Amino acid sequence: MKKNILASFLALLTLVSVSRAIRADDWGEDSSAGPVYPYSVPLGLNKPKIPQNNPLTKEKVELGRFLYFDKRLSKNNTISCETCHDPDKGWTDQSPVSTGIHGLKGTRSAPPVFNATYNELQFWDGRAPSLEEQAKGPIQNPVEMGFSLKGVEEKIGKIKGYQKMFKKAFGPGSITAEQIVQAIASFERTILSGDSDYDRFVAGNKQALSPSAQRGMNLFFGRARCDVCHSGVNFSDSKFHNLGVGMNSKNPDLGRYLVTKKEGDQGRFKTPGLRGLLYTHPYMHDGSEKTLEAVVDFYNKGGIRNPYLDKEIHPLGLGARQKKDLVAFLKALNGKPALVEIPKTFPN
Asked: Which of 58, 218, 254, 335 would suit a FRET pair with 106, their CA atoms being 20 to 30 Å apart?
């Protein structure tokens, strides 16, 4: 059994490296019918909502795929979206905090891109209301891409190959920063991960979950009450909670408070989704927990006490076997990786 699980895991990692993007000929016939999501979605997920002002088209998705991996979106051509959200690393960088332009370090762990379309707000602190607004952030951040919207607009606008792609995606006219982020967001809406052992179990395959994972599932939805915050198709309520992570440090990251300035939001961060956890380590907004076992221990102890700790966070009193079962269930939420073909050459 262990050999089979290991073989399946290694096979999935291999698939990430050799996989392809969704091609134009995968596109549904109704792609001109307005803001619809014309792709099929993995088992366990719902079709993402598409904003009225950015209908999903195959031309925008393909353009966004190139822009996502293009380091020319950074000021010195060294950083792309992929740098911190690498498909071979679970669409993260698997680091406690990310490294940007000139080797500068950020202060938070890079969340995965897959299934980000289901988030009501983007970033750990929710400061961006959409994927389009989120895409603007790293470009302008001095420790990420270190550029400006005007600068990237002018740079990309001078590239003839991109001029042709933008014309196909948006029609005639000058390339704008708004079009750049709309294309990137369109591509990111196609990055989905589902079809996990848990999804197959729910769909009727009662052999899909091991006995340990089934016991963990009962704990997750029962005594441990993990689903109070980790709910929905992506196992996130898209809300903000204080677990006490980092609140015992000298200068704690105050999270959502930095956006809202509301006293009760101190130390609150957005609930992360629980899919793909085998690939998205380390965990928590600061990457402070290296393993799922450590995460379960953290919750079992009731987080870190502070004046703003969520009322839902309290010691769970789980024993060794129960903690092991809960980890088994979390691993069973790991679906098929979101697959994409990385461009080998870029427009000139």
From this structure: 335
Tokens matching residue 199: 């999804």
What backbone torsions phi and psi does residue 259 show, to the nearest 5 degrees? -95, -45
Question: Do 294 and 151 belong to one domain?
Answer: no
- Residue 122 CA to residue 4 CA, distance in Å, equals 37
Q: Which helix (H) or strand (E) holds 269?
A: strand 269-270
Q: Which of 144, 153, 188, 289 is catalytic?
A: 144
Radius of gyration of the chain (CA): 21
DSSP state of 122: B
Phi, psi of 344 (to 5 degrees): -90, -30
Q: Tens digit of pLDDT for each residue in 42-75?
A: 999 999 999 999 999 999 999 999 999 999 999 9
Which residue range(s) make up the domain with 70?
Answer: 19-188
How many separate domains does the chain show?
2
What is the domain-level CATH number for residue 286?
1.10.760.10
Residues 31 and 142 in one domain: yes
**Token pair belonging to 60:** 């925008």
Query: Using an 8 Å Cβ cutoff, are 255 and 269 in contact?
Result: yes
* Cα 307 from Cα 296, distance rounded (Å): 22
Burial of 243 (0-12, 13-18, 19+ CB in 10 A): buried
DSSP string computed for 182-251: HHHHHHHTT------HHHHHHTT-TTSS-HHHHHHHHHHHTTT-GGGTS-TTTT--S-EE---TTTTSSS
Cβ contact 131:122 at 8 Å: yes
Note if 293 is an active site residue: no
Using left for φ > 0, alpha for ψ between -120 and 50, and beta otherwise, residue 123 falls in left
Task: Identify which of 219, 287, 286, 288 has the alpha carbon closest to the alpha carbon of residue 253.
Answer: 286
Q: Enter the pTM of the model.
A: 0.89
What six digits make up the tokens of 116? Answer: 């980000």
> Do 261 and 323 form a contact (C-beta atoms < 8 A)?
no
Q: Which pLDDT tens digit goes with each residue over 182-228?
A: 999 999 999 999 999 999 999 999 999 999 999 999 999 999 999 99
